[in-house]
Amino acid sequence: MTMMNLTQNERPVSGSFRVDVSRGERVGRVSSEWFSRPDDERYLNLPELYDAVRGRAEHAQARTVESRAIRVEASRDNVERLALIVPGRAEPVAPTHWSFGQLCALVGAPTSYLRQLPATLSGINLQHGLLSHRAELVKTLEADSGRVELRAVTGPDYGRIWDHELVAAVMKIAGNGTGDTRWKVPGVLDWATMTHNPFVDVTKDTTTLYASDRDVFLFLVDDTNPIEAGRLADGSPDLYFRGFYCWNSEVGSKTLGIASFYLRAVCMNRNLWGVENFEEITIRHSKFAGQRFAHEAAPALTSFANSSPAPFVAGIKAARERIVARTDEDRETFLRKSGFSKSETTKVIETVLGEENRKPESIFDFVQGITALARIKSHQDARLELEGKAKRLMERAI
Fold first, then answer.
1. Within 10 A of 352 (CB to CB), how many other CB atoms are there?
2. Pairing relationship of beta strands 148-154 and 71-77 according to DSSP bridges
3. Residues 25 and 64 reside in one and the same domain
4. 198-254 confidence digits (pLDDT tens)
5. DSSP 3-state helix, strand, coil percentages of the chain (rounded to 5)?
6. Containing domain of residue 239, as a range?
7. What is the rounded radius of gyration, in angstroms, for the C-alpha atoms of the chain?
8. Position 39 in a domain
9. Helical (H) or strand (E) element with 56
């Protein structure tokens, strides 16, 4: 396994280290996953996760069939439920909650309405939709694990990327995800001391490795090797560490995506604090998705994992050194020319003054003030707009 050598900016730690989470952005995507996952969707290491998603793939079969040839019937097995007779399979196939919705959407049937109907009436309506369906072919994903289920139904050109393929790509750089490489499940921020502790046991409460019958989501960091990128106002080092999260759905509930970034801390409910240099790529499950994953996503993940932090550190250094305002008039002119309203300009300057005990002078000062202002915006669109402006300012300094 290829691993990146430490640079002069990286500091291997054996315990907690102090961080300043008032800087950078707060990203809540991982926290949303953490809140929504029941225990049976939480995994303690990557091999365990891989075995689970690979196992279900081994019991699955993808086929392309004629939509008009699918027959819908209501079966009685203690409770009335729908079953499908699919060409090429003798036994009935039971749609899952997800695939039923996909099937309804595919033929233009109102999903929520059909769910409320008795199975017999729902089947009649769905059958009518299939017979009237203009497209001749659909792609099914059927799983036989004692009972045959329809896990997904998509258009014939759906380019499936299996969940275990993404997990395998992560394992190439992260091993078991719990410490046998530099990439691991993150530690936890202690709010009382404002220190991030990388050395926390991986439990169902702390893990960031998730999989359901519809998707996978993984979040890993390199928090035992923080990177110094300048100094804080009190002279202490401003420490960051690398992180990335990625996601996929082999049944079509979401795209495949990878987000990479630098951050300063992860709290107990898995909010990301002090995020900088956030980058994201997504791949739709279109016809050539598999090739794009092989040629774009997986190499991008490896490249980020093994790259030097020097460009990131140099960018921070350049932004700190580039003085763009020394007077109040300079500050207002700089922000107004950068697309900020008069009220936003005042708030950015006041934010920096409140947090740094001085007015902004460098591009880095202004960027920190803008991202701090963005964090308190209640509307996502307004927050993203401010964060976008901050990112463009940062890019001007590099």
1. 23
2. unpaired
3. no
4. 999 999 999 999 999 999 999 999 999 999 888 777 788 889 999 999 999 999 998
5. 40, 30, 35
6. 17-55+160-308
7. 25
8. yes
9. helix 46-58
